């Protein structure tokens, strides 16, 4: 058996626009998210889901043993910001915040994570990004107790 052939880590990652500016209009998201999926595929990144709202996005990515979550996210953020700016989708310069949040996902919960990501617009009708991140942190703390 080839070493690492069946080794994967699933990660749910979240990152925001710079200063959490509401720059990702529905029109921008409609072109940005398919670009991210296609670009990730071209770079050997298995992006299973991407969605978000005006100030942040969520992804689920399937990492292989040779991929670093920090490097994958850095590449996705850099390349997507360059793409948005080069195509002049916004009148102002676009960039992502330097930080990101990443949580491992059990293979048995991938479908739930993807469903959660697909419902971002609905979810954020009543919750802010800060409330969402606090809920994630609470779940992590409960698991680590």
Please characterize this protein's 3D structure.
This protein is α+β, with helices and mostly antiparallel strands and 145 residues long. The protein has a domain at 9-108: Transposase IS200-like (Alpha-Beta Plaits). It contains five helices and four strands, in the order βαββαβααα. The protein has helices at 26-42, 69-86, 110-118, 120-123, 129-144; strands spanning 9-16, 46-53, 56-63, 101-105. The chain has a four-stranded antiparallel beta sheet, sandwiched between helices. The radius of gyration is 15 Å and the shape is globular.
Brief write-up:
The protein has 145 residues and is of the alpha+beta class. It has helices spanning 26-42, 69-86, 110-118, 120-123, 129-144; strands spanning 9-16, 46-53, 56-63, 101-105. Helix content is 44%, strand content 20%.
Keywords:
20% strand, 44% helix, 145 residues, alpha+beta, Alpha-Beta Plaits
Oligomer: single chain
Number of DSSP helical runs? 5
Q: Tell me the radius of gyration.
A: 15 Å
Q: What does the average pLDDT come to?
A: 90
Class from helix and strand fractions: alpha+beta
Q: What characterizes the major β-sheet?
A: 4 strands, antiparallel
CATH A-level architecture of the domain at 9-108:
2-Layer Sandwich
Range of helix content: 40-55%
Spans where pLDDT lies below 50 across 5 or more residues: none
- CATH H-tier superfamily of the domain at 9-108: Transposase IS200-like
User: How large a portion of the residues is in β-strands, by DSSP E?
Assistant: 15-25%
Strand order of the largest sheet: 2-3-1-4
What is the CATH top level name of the domain at 9-108?
Alpha Beta
Helix and strand element order: EHEEHEHHH
- End-to-end CA span: 37 Å
Sum up the overall morphology in one term: globular
Number of strands: 4
């Amino acid at each position: 058996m080839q070493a690492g052939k069946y080794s994967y880590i699933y990660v749910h990652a979240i990152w925001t626009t710079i200063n959490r500016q509401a720059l990702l209009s529905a029109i921008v998201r409609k072109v940005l998210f398919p670009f991210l999926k296609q670009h990730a595929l071209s770079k050997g990144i298995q992006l299973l889901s991407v969605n978000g709202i005006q100030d942040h996005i969520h992804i689920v990515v399937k990492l292989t043993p040779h991929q670093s979550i920090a490097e994958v996210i850095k590449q996705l953020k850099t390349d997507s910001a360059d793409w948005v700016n080069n195509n002049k989708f916004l009148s102002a310069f676009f960039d992502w915040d330097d930080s990101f949040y990443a949580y491992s996902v059990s293979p048995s919960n991938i479908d739930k994570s993807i469903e959660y990501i697909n419902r971002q617009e609905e979810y954020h009708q009543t919750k802010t990004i800060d409330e969402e991140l606090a809920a994630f942190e609470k779940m992590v703390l409960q698991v680590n107790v």
